[in-house]
Amino acid sequence: MKPMIVDKVASVASSCELGRELRVSPDIPCEEGVVVAVEVLNNKSSYNQLELTSGRMAQVKAGDIVVGALGHRHALFGYSGHMPVSLSPGDTVNILNLGGVIGICDSVTPDRGSPFECRVLGSVLHFPVLGERIGRPARVGIHTLHDTLTLKTGGIPVVALAGTCMDAGKTAAACAIISRFSHHGLRVAAFKATGVSLRRDVLAMEDAGALETGLFTDFGVVTTTPESGPALTRALLNQMAAGRPDVIVFELGDGLLGAYGVQAILSSADIRGVLDAVVLCANDPVAAWGGVTLLRNNFDIEPALVTGRATDNSVGSDMIIEQLGVPAFNALTQETQVGATLMQKLFPERC
Questions:
Q1: Closest by alpha carbon to 167, among 203, 201, 193, 191?
Q2: Residue 317 and residue 312: Cα distance in Å, rounded?
Q3: 124 beta partners
Q4: Fewer CB near the terminus (10 Å): N or C of the chain?
Q5: Rounded to whole angstroms, how far apart are CA atoms 287 and 303?
Q6: What is the DSSP pairing of strand 49-51 with strand 57-59?
Q7: How many C-alpha atoms does 326 have within 13 Å on its Cβ side?
Q8: Rounded CA gap, 299 and 157, in Å?
Q9: What's the pTM value of the predicted model, to 2 decimals?
Q10: Domain extents for the chain?
Q11: What is the second-level CATH architecture of the domain 158-350?
């Protein structure tokens, strides 16, 4: 056990409530969610920030001692990498995302540049037994995930946002919807069900008016998968419903054909059965066509509306309306219309 002063604690480790003075061990369990300390070895001119536990973004530079958590990432736009099978102090790893997920990079997107390379220092210890100086490897998460959980939303209306890929505008649309619901006096709970650990999306939902938010990382999952996605969604829906909000809004991170479990979630009959509206976010009209077709043919879901970059002007919106028969509005410039469409569908008595 070695004392250490760290420079930055990434948001993936928020639940651990760590300070700057930590104790680290050379024994590192290579398991998802294990918290580790690393030394950054290189500087970067782009994609060079880290989301801290406060939610603020901080620039990372060579020499920084950073705390993150082990995990993998399979991103369409960004770094893709795997979790190492073994680690010892001195080994080299990479920071795979802005939230502080640490693994071995396998593939990069050119506009991101090479990832940060880091020297492993050890696993971060916590001391769960008061008065005992027996440290155990810290792990992310504050709740236990149960695979056999029964879904109980109590009839609360649920809105889900799915995208054709990452960066399709899901969070912007979720915030617009939350904002309009709140404007009508509704109490909104919101969460993000899939993706790679990063808190900025749920923080944006809070800024938009959500009274309670949740994130899969709170259940000890750094990166969601088809195996964990449905259980996480049930757990988060139950957690949000327990507070008896008027409506629940949640984002399915990544895309309909991604690796983070969206298809497994929408294939679960019990989850699909509580969805009162599904909003599709698409980058272009062809993506909108593919997304609507997938929702209809694979999951028997009729989307409530389409938004995203495909609706940036009337050209794309008109194509979607005419060829797909689905309302299409831009969440950034037509927030009122987006809200009105969903209010009419879910709360016609308030319109």
A1: 201
A2: 8
A3: 24
A4: C
A5: 14
A6: antiparallel
A7: 30
A8: 19
A9: 0.95
A10: 2-137, 158-350
A11: 3-Layer(aba) Sandwich (3.40)
